[in-house]
Design goal:
About 35% of the residues lie in helices and about 40% in strands. It is an alpha+beta fold.
Length: about 160
C-alpha cells in the first residue's frame, strides 16, 4: 500500500491550521485545478468526528465523486478521514499537527490502494503516487498561505455550532 507523506511548516497557531484543514469549502479551493466542489455532507461548518463529505472533481479527464468520513479526531493535533466510496480501492488520510517554536508543523500522511489489482499497482508506481503527492503538496501550500496571511481569530467551537 503506497504511503505519501508531506510535511509543511506553517507560521501560524496550531488551532488555526487545524481548523483551516477541516474546512471543506477551503479544501475545494485548495485543489481548484481539479474543479473540486462539495456535493453533499453531514453537519455544517468545519468537519468533525463522524462527519461525511462527498467531493466531485475531475482527475485524469474523468469526473469523479469521492466520499470520506472523519474517523479520528483530536483537536488540535489530529484528524483522519477514510474513503467510504470513490475511485480508490481504499485510502486513509491522516492530518497531524505539531506545535513548533515558529508555529505549526502540518503532516499529511495518505495511504492508498488503487483499484484493478495488478493494473492498479502498476498505475501506483508509474504515475498515481506522484499525482497524489502533487495534490497534497499544492493543498498544503494553499493552506500555509491562507493560515499565514489570516490575521483574524477563527470562531470558537461553540460559535461555529450556533
Amino acid at each position: 500500500m503506497p504511503v505519501v507523506r508531506v510535511e509543511t511548516v506553517i507560521r501560524a497557531p496550531i488551532e488555526r491550521c487545524f481548523d483551516l484543514a477541516r474546512d471543506p469549502d477551503l479544501h475545494a479551493q485548495s485543489v481548484s485545478g481539479t474543479r473540486e466542489r462539495v456535493v453533499s455532507r453531514t453537519g455544517a461548518g468545519l468537519l468533525g468526528l463522524g462527519d461525511i463529505v462527498t467531493f466531485e472533481a475531475v482527475h485524469f479527464g474523468i469526473r469523479q465523486r469521492l466520499t470520506a468520513q472523519i474517523v479520528r479526531f483530536d483537536r488540535p493535533r489530529l484528524f483522519e478521514d477514510w474513503m467510504v466510496r470513490g475511485a480508490f480501492h481504499a485510502f486513509s488520510h491522516r492530518h497531524a499537527f505539531e506545535p513548533t517554536a515558529d508555529g505549526t508543523l502540518m503532516i499529511d500522511t495518505f495511504e492508498y490502494r488503487a483499484p484493478l489489482g495488478p493494473l492498479g499497482t502498476l498505475a501506483e508506481r508509474l504515475f498515481l503516487t506522484l499525482y497524489v503527492r502533487r495534490l497534497l503538496t499544492a493543498r498544503a501550500a494553499f493552506l500555509k498561505s491562507h493560515a499565514e496571511r489570516c490575521h483574524h481569530d477563527l470562531p470558537t467551537e461553540e460559535e461555529r455550532r450556533s
